[in-house]
């Protein structure tokens, strides 16, 4: 089980990351491009999700594109979900109580890689090859 503190620790361990609040919640950015953030559900979200609305801590993370988003939501619905507010937006919501820190690290790093400048992402991958 992961927590918002794990999201913060993982995000802030990446190069050139800053945290700046957005909509009253923490958002982690690389070169001012948000890649992960706290995302509690609001009344509209609860209305859309009904009984499927999770009760625990929730984070959001950017993904490469909508196809990646749909793949994550359909292959790991216990961990990832979306809401109507995110329709057409390349990001997933993460049920932190249902994800381990290693999987969360993958998601946060992938989100960072998606938003980081190409040179910075390439330098990171040279020093930290996948796998």
Describe the structure.
The chain contains 5 helices and 6 strands. β1 and β2 form a beta hairpin. α1 crosses α4. The chain has a single domain, classed as Aspartate Aminotransferase, domain 1 (Alpha-Beta Complex). The longest helix has 15 residues. Strands 1-2-3-4-6-5 form a 6-stranded antiparallel beta sheet. By secondary structure, the chain is of the alpha+beta class.
Name its key features.
about 130 residues, alpha+beta, Aspartate Aminotransferase, domain 1, six-stranded antiparallel sheet, 6 strands, about 20% strand, globular
The total count of helices amounts to 5
What is the overall silhouette?
globular
How helix-rich are the residues, as a percent range? 25-40%
Can you list the strand order of the major beta sheet? 1-2-3-4-6-5
The CATH class designation is: Alpha Beta
Q: Look at the helices and sheets and give the structural class.
A: alpha+beta
The CATH architecture comes to Alpha-Beta Complex
**How far is the N terminus from the C terminus?**
22 Å
Average pLDDT works out at 96
CATH topology, anyone? Aspartate Aminotransferase, domain 1
Domain count: 1
